[in-house]
Amino acid sequence: MRNKGALALLALIASLIIAACGQQAPAAAPTAAPASGGEAPASSGGTIKVGLSFSDFATERWKNEEVLMRRLLEEKGYEVISQEANQDVKLQNDQIDNMVAQGVQALIIVAQDGDAIVTSVDKAADAGVKVIAYDRLIKSPKIAGYISFNNVEVGRQQADGVMKALFANYDTANGPAKVVKLGGSPTDNNAILFRQGQDEVLQEYLDDGRIEIVADQWVENWDPANALKLMENILTSQQNNIDAVVASNDGTALGALQALRAQNLAGVVPISGQDATADGCNSIVKNELTVSILKDIRNLSPLAVDMADALLKGNPVEGMQEYTLAELTTDESLSGNVMALFLPVEQVNAENVHELCVANGFQSYDDVYRDVPEDQRPPRP
User: Fold this and answer.
1) Is the Cβ–Cβ distance between 152 and 197 less than 8 Å?
2) Is the pLDDT assigned to residue 26 strictly greater than 90?
3) What letter does residue 355 receive in the DSSP assignment?
4) What are phi and psi of 67, to 5 degrees?
5) C-beta separation of 85 from 112 below 8 A
6) What distance in Å separates the CA atoms of residue 66 and residue 84, rounded to the nearest whole number?
7) Is the whole-model pTM more than 0.90?
8) How far is residue 297's CA from residue 279's CA, in Å, rounded to a whole number?
9) What is the C-alpha separation between 38 and 224, in angstroms, rounded?
């Protein structure tokens, strides 16, 4: 009897436990999954996410700008997701898709290829993401804004600096000066605009017979090693008879200068650059690079951040103007308009490099005057 009683008691306890579990289950169910119509916050606490997409960090300036933009965005309260594509077009498209999937509401993009990136950018824009093309145009009317420097003026100033240096010493009795054009990456629309400005200046010298173009090359990925190889081949084909080089940034100019240095032509042949990098400015004070173009990223990056902030809040962006894609690319087959903001540029040479790039803190004194004897340096700022 005792065994039967014990069994009955155990059965009663079990039934009570089952009943209790059954009552608790409905209370726990809502935590298993959100309602299908709900929208998750951008991140914990509802912080808005902003994505930064960079073509590469091999170009000196891009990492500096990534650090600056990240800090400024975080100071405004945004969560930042940053990706670098190592000059891989497909990877950059995939990274942008991924950042959109993570919930970014704005994207600031340095495009590896302004044409190929349109695929992911249009998808992002269609999803409501505010896309800003940073210093390299993305060829889509769906971008919310484009911010850069006056890139045609960059080219004008490059050619102007080289021509002035060339004809300060060149004897026209020797016939036309032999000029090399080294463009940037053919996938970068800026390189096309730089060339447009360069050609505007060079045309006058071509028309009156003072120069002839003996080589015209584009440097894939803006790679200094590619520029070195191209210049070596050009020097070989011209038996070192080169009088000037219009190169499109400091990296490609410094690559070309390696080839010129090997033939004792560095500092003899005028050559241009761009970006007023630390290495470029150092080359200027060593009298090798003739001219660079200052594009003060300390102005561009904050403006890009302010643009993203304004667009996300639905506010107007001061100074933006509407341009057609055709006029921004010189490609009449492109249709549509974009809103853009352009900043001025300045020509940097041996006479003003200290004032424009060192005294104002754009580059450090020690970097610019590296390996320069103390008695040939100006006072520290």
Assistant:
1) yes
2) no
3) I
4) -60, -45
5) yes
6) 10
7) no
8) 16
9) 51
Distances (CA, A) of 278 to 205, 347, 364, 370: 31, 15, 8, 10
d(CA 87, CA 55): 5
Scanning the chain, the segments in alpha helix (DSSP H) are 2-28, 60-75, 89-101, 118-126, 151-167, 189-207, 224-237, 250-262, 278-285, 297-313, 325-329, 353, 365-368
Q: Using the structure block, give the residue that is written with the tokens 């155990």.
A: 10
Query: Which three-class secondary structure state does DSSP give residue 3?
Result: helix
pLDDT of residue 298: 87
Nearest CA to 217 among 189, 183, 251?
Answer: 183
Report the distance separating Cα 355 and Cα 345, nearest Å: 15
Q: Which amino acid appears at position 176 of this protein?
A: P
**Averaged pLDDT for residues 344-373:** 96
124-175 confidence digits (pLDDT tens): 999 999 999 999 999 999 999 999 999 999 999 999 999 999 999 999 899 9
List domains and CATH numbers for the chain: 44-149+296-343 (3.40.50.2300), 151-295+348-376 (3.40.50.2300)
Would you say residue 254 has pLDDT above 80? yes
HEC secondary structure over 271-322: EECCCCCHHHHHHHHCCCCCEEEECCHHHHHHHHHHHHHHHHHCCCCCCCEE
Helix axes 297-313, 60-75, angle to 10 degrees: 40
What pLDDT is recorded for position 214?
Answer: 98
DSSP lists the bridge partners of residue 295 as none
Nearest to 229 by CA among 239, 217, 211: 217
Count Cα neighbours of 74 within 13 Å in the Cβ-side half-sphere: 10
Q: Could you tell me which of 246, 248, 252, 251 has the C-alpha nearest to residue 271?
A: 246
Closest CA to 62 of 43, 35, 82: 82
Query: What pLDDT, on the 0 to 100 scale, is given for residue 41?
Result: 34
Q: pLDDT > 70: what percent of the chain? A: 88
Burial tier of 297 (Cβ tally within 10 Å: 0-12, 13-18, 19+): buried
Give residue for tokens 């891989």: 88
List pLDDT tens digits, range 161-217: 999 999 999 998 999 999 999 999 998 999 999 999 999 999 999 999 999 999 999
pLDDT of res. 46: 73
The maximal CA–CA distance of the chain, rounded, in angstroms, is: 130
